[in-house]
Amino acid sequence: MNPENPFRLDNQAALITGGGTGIGFGIARCMVKAGARVVLVGRRESELSKACAELGAGASFIAQDITHFDELPSLVQRAEQAAGSSISILVNNAGVHLKKFAADTTTEEFQTVFSTHVLAAHALTRALVPGMVSRGRGAVLFTSSMSAFFGIPQVMAYAAAKSAYFGMVLTLSAELAAKGVRVNAIAPGWIFSDMSRKSLENDPVRKTKVMSRIQMGRMGQPEEIGWAAVFLCSSAASYVTGVTLPVDGGAAIGF
User: Fold this and answer.
1) How far apart are CA 212 and CA 217, in angstroms?
2) What angle do CA 172, 91, 33 make, to 5 degrees?
3) Is 239 a catalytic residue?
4) What pLDDT sits at residue 151?
5) Beta-carbon-side half-sphere exposure of residue 40 (alpha carbons within 13 Å)
6) For residue range 142-199, what is the model confidence (pLDDT) as tens digits?
7) By C-alpha distance, which of 196, 193, 225 is closest to 22?
8) Are 66 and 59 in contact (CB under 8 A)?
9) Which fold has domain 13-236?
């Protein structure tokens, strides 16, 4: 803890899944600025390499499909070697999107979305938490979504996976709070990213409806999620656990 600036993450190492692009990269950028060393994990080596080049010496990467659950304990070891210290922050951010009506979503498609968002996040948390508990400190952060707050057509599998984080965050925080490990989530609104672009492109009606919900009148930037993540993982939030924080420009307020 930096008593002069409790928002700093000096001497901490963060593992960020899906950290090469979009919101994950915004979180990584802000954590590096706050003093953390970050290890980005994702499937696309080229994107990860490009992200690390931009982030500088405080970043490294491991190309890994996190749905290979049996490989995650070794991923943790490799990440700690890359960071040069134990991982004290885990950001479960990796995800896949599926824009499809519920009646047209196959069991296999649903399972693919759920495996990445929920099962992989659980498996990676399970691999990292024992070390955090033994050291008496740690922060786990999940990236949820506005789709967990209200009904959005054509995203049933995605919404189900993001909604599952509510229960995961509450249960994990209840189990781990007394052991020095805090567990929270951020629920981003509509943020400029490849995922949001693909969701809204060629669908002007949907885009108009989305923009009409955002009280601030604009989409957010990945770094606006990143700074919220820094806060929740820093000692400035040392008494905050079990929370899902909307960062959405007011979209959840309603109208």
Assistant:
1) 7
2) 135
3) no
4) 86
5) 34
6) 999 988 888 888 899 999 999 999 999 999 999 999 999 999 999 999 898 776 777 6
7) 193
8) no
9) Rossmann fold (3.40.50)
CB atoms within 10 A of CB 214: 18
Separation in Å, CA 34 to CA 21, 28, 66: 19, 10, 26
| Region 30-53 average pLDDT | 97
pLDDT of residue 167: 97
CB atoms within 10 A of CB 107: 7
pTM for this prediction: 0.93
| Pair of tokens at residue 25 | 């990269």
β-bridge partners, 68: none
* Paired tokens of 132: 């955090």
| Active-site residue, selected from the candidate residues 158, 165, 190, 231 | 158
Sequential DSSP letters for 107-164: HHHHHHHHIIIIIHHHHHHHHHHHHHHHHT-EEEEEE--GGGTS--TTBHHHHHHHHH
* Domain boundaries defined on the chain: 13-236
Side-by-side strand order, sheet with 138-143: 59-63, 37-42, 13-17, 89-92, 138-143, 181-188, 244-247
Summarised one tens digit per residue, pLDDT across range 100-152 is 999 999 999 999 999 999 999 999 999 999 999 999 999 999 999 988 888 88
